[in-house]
């Protein structure tokens, strides 16, 4: 029964999930170091990483509070950034529909787990990929924050060694193989340009939603 619910995923999918979880953990090191470097006690970013589990919102929160803003304003900004979770939730509704684990399933919903989940060919594999990625990030992100917050006092600017570039680099490496076809390349490039154009106009975290408009261009391309 368990085997039917969680069938074996392709090795490439598992490898991709492992790399993304590793990248998230490394970014967590950067976040934890930044938070403690700005004067926050380690428990603040650590609790945010466990309870919020949304990197963009957490970076935004500590940035606003550190600059003198209200924690309530920072929380409101974080909610706005996470507005993209509304369409995400609709996309993975079937994946997290089981009542006994629905709350946890919603908590581990993020860009990466949603992408890996909805990209699988069957519902059973969608669930397997979603939960594997979501739980992996739920473990790696707080661990990275703990490590970063601990060593932050020894490395004043952890971004100086390039940790902030690791995550986008790994994501790029994962998708390069899919850019070989003309239609996919047109869609990806169009979405990228749309997202970049929207950066100065919308809150942090929202440009990724606008990048989905590139799919419309792909559909029209013959």
From TrEMBL:
<feature type="transmembrane region" description="Helical">
    <location>
        <begin position="12"/>
        <end position="31"/>
    </location>
</feature>
<feature type="transmembrane region" description="Helical">
    <location>
        <begin position="191"/>
        <end position="217"/>
    </location>
</feature>
<feature type="transmembrane region" description="Helical">
    <location>
        <begin position="129"/>
        <end position="155"/>
    </location>
</feature>
<comment type="similarity">
    <text>Belongs to the AzlC family.</text>
</comment>
<keyword id="KW-1003">Cell membrane</keyword>
<feature type="transmembrane region" description="Helical">
    <location>
        <begin position="161"/>
        <end position="179"/>
    </location>
</feature>
<keyword id="KW-1133">Transmembrane helix</keyword>
<dbReference type="InterPro" id="IPR011606">
    <property type="entry name" value="Brnchd-chn_aa_trnsp_permease"/>
</dbReference>
<dbReference type="Pfam" id="PF03591">
    <property type="entry name" value="AzlC"/>
</dbReference>
<protein>
    <submittedName>
        <fullName>AzlC family ABC transporter permease</fullName>
    </submittedName>
</protein>
<keyword id="KW-0813">Transport</keyword>
<keyword id="KW-0812">Transmembrane</keyword>
<keyword id="KW-0472">Membrane</keyword>
């Amino acid at each position: 029964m368990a085997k039917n619910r969680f069938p074996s995923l392709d090795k490439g999918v598992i490898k991709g999930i492992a790399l993304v979880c590793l990248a998230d953990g490394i970014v967590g090191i950067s976040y934890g170091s930044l938070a403690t470097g700005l004067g926050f006690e380690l428990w603040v970013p650590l609790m945010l990483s466990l309870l919020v589990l949304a990197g963009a919102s957490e970076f935004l929160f500590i940035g606003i509070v550190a600059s003198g803003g209200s924690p309530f304003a920072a929380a409101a900004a974080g909610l706005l950034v996470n507005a993209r979770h509304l369409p995400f939730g609709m996309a993975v509704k079937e994946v997290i529909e089981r009542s006994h684990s629905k709350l946890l399933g919603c908590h581990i919903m993020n860009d990466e787990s949603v992408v890996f989940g909805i990209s699988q060919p069957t519902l059973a594999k969608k669930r397997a990929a979603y939960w594997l990625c979501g739980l992996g990030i739920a473990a790696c992100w707080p661990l990275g924050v703990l490590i970063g917050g601990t060593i932050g006092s020894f490395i004043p600017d952890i971004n100086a060694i390039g940790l902030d570039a690791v995550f986008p680099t790994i994501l790029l490496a994962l998708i390069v193989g899919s850019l070989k076809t003309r239609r996919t390349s047109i869609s990806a490039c169009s979405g990228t340009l749309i997202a970049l154009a929207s950066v100065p106009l919308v809150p942090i975290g929202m440009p990724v939603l606008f990048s989905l408009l590139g799919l419309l261009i792909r559909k029209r391309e013959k």
